[in-house]
Amino acid sequence: MIYFVTEFIPKYLPFLLSGAVVTLELTFCSMVLGIAIGVASAIAAIAGGKVARLIVRIYVNICRGVPLIVILLFVYFTLPEIDIRLPAFWAGVVGLSFNLGAYLSEVFRAAILAIDSGQMQAGLALGMKRTQIYRKIILPQAAVIALPTVGGYFISLLKDCALVSFISVEELLRHGNYIISNTFRSMDTYMLVGLIYYLMSLGAAHAIRWIEIKLRPAYLRV
């Protein structure tokens, strides 16, 4: 333990933190794209035609039934066979956001359906287009309703980013594996890697809670 505190942490923490930065970048990029996919899929499932609803249903079922690591490996190793080549980082973003979007589509669909349908009718009566109603009235309210669940998925995504080490993304876990291959100190390394993940998740949870409080109506704040 003395070696871990006095020598191991000072020597290897900066290297692990550089990997943690990549993990955070990967998380934020995947979250933004995943939200976009989720919102689009939710609207298609609610307001789209039969074909659109069928496509969304198939998409959601595929992502629920296929392990995330398989999706990541497919994007990174299989897409080049049809001349679609992505750098490891962006292959990770595509795989993570594709999987996340399926789950968020159900979250946003439920949030949109929780809003009084009369608001859509009122908007149409005022001469607004459906796209305007969704953008200015429905989606802002749905975002507040969905925020706690989306925040939970953000924290899960942060931890799921460890899987992209299998496709050569230089993130936190991969940096930890580099250290183990050079020092053979797996216990010390994984303890420090786990601590960094824990602190990032804890920080994300507090940030999400702060955002929830800020977006909550004043009369509901305690």
TrEMBL record:
Write out the GO cellular component annotations: ATP-binding cassette (ABC) transporter complex
Instruction: Please give one Gene Ontology molecular function term for this protein.
Output: transmembrane transporter activity
Keywords, ordered alphabetically = Amino-acid transport, Cell membrane, Membrane, Transmembrane, Transmembrane helix, Transport
Where is it localised? Cell inner membrane; Cell membrane
Does the keyword Membrane belong to this entry? yes
Instruction: List, for all copies, the residue spans of the domain called ABC transmembrane type-1.
Output: 20-208
Q: Which InterPro entries does this chain map to?
A: AA_ABC_transptr_permease_3TM, ArtM/GltK/GlnP/TcyL/YhdX-like, MetI-like, MetI-like_sf
| Membrane association type | Multi-pass membrane protein
Major location (coarse): membrane
Pfam families from the entry? BPD_transp_1 (PF00528)
- One GO biological process term: amino acid transport
Q: What stretches pass through the bilayer?
A: 20-46, 58-77, 89-112, 133-155, 190-211
Query: What PANTHER family does the record point to?
Result: L-CYSTINE TRANSPORT SYSTEM PERMEASE PROTEIN TCYL, MEMBRANE COMPONENT OF AMINO ACID ABC TRANSPORTER
Q: Which NCBIfam families does the record associate with it?
A: HEQRo_perm_3TM
The family line of this record is:
Belongs to the binding-protein-dependent transport system permease family. HisMQ subfamily.
Put simply, this protein is called: Cystine transporter permease
Q: What is the lineage of its organism?
A: Bacteria, Pseudomonadati, Pseudomonadota, Alphaproteobacteria, Rhodospirillales
